[in-house]
Amino acid sequence: MKNNVRNERVAQKLTQDELAKKIGVSRQTINAMETNKYIPSTVLALKVALLLNKKVEELFILEEDD
Amino acid sequence: MKTRFLFPHQFKKLGWIILLPSLVLALLLMKDVVAFSWLDVKVFAMYNPPFLGETEQSFGITENNIADEILACLLIVGTLLVACSEVKQEDEFIGKLRFESLLWALYVNAALLLFAILFIYGLGFYKAMVYHLFTLMLLFLVKFHLELYRISKVPAYEE
């Protein structure tokens, strides 16, 4: 699964730390998510989508091997 | 994040305070560098089978140096408090690292046990098993904290 979290976060002029604090996770979690090292739970994905004002499927995209 | 089976974050510091001195003292005691003869006391033994001509002492009072018992208990409590207390920002990603570190420790611990079974004999095996009592928890602690250190070093990309 790939994601557009980093692009959308930067577009909204948020740092990883700011996004993390607003959602209540560590900055490392946002970093791991953006670099595709961690696939978030549905709850976390929904929180990120809500905060970035996007639909979940606009942020997280399935790939062929998923 | 709500967690089950984890201690609050404040317990981590207490864990380190208990763990570090007890680990050092336990290793020194195992190597006979220190001895605590003043801890020779009478204790209740639930199971103490006869050994080298001694009589059975189960369900009775026996004399024993309790330094190793005290240090072993402190080691277990200290290790658990350090390894199983929440980190400052406990979240699902940290939970994943915790689980993977525990799994890694379990496999390495099993490998150590297999190695000891196959290559260590006599009294050496007994000694190895004494160390092995603590290796699972200590391996988990070390691996988990290495992972935490590794992710703390990732670049921020905070443009």
From TrEMBL, chain A:
Source taxon at top rank: Bacteria
Keyword Ribosomal protein attached: no
Pfam families found in the cross-reference section: HTH_3 (PF01381)
Protein keywords: DNA-binding
Protein name (database record): XRE family transcriptional regulator
Source organism (scientific name): Rufibacter tibetensis
GO molecular function: DNA binding
InterPro entries attached to this UniProt entry: Cro/C1-type_HTH (IPR001387), Lambda_DNA-bd_dom_sf (IPR010982)
Keyword Phosphoprotein in record: no
Lineage start: Bacteria, Pseudomonadati, Bacteroidota, Cytophagia, Cytophagales
Domain named HTH cro/C1-type: residues: 5-59
UniProtKB/TrEMBL annotation, chain B:
Highest taxon listed in the record's lineage: Bacteria
Record-annotated membrane-spanning stretches: 104-123, 129-146
Keyword Membrane (UniProt): yes
Sorted UniProt keywords: Membrane, Transmembrane, Transmembrane helix
Name of this chain's protein: Uncharacterized protein
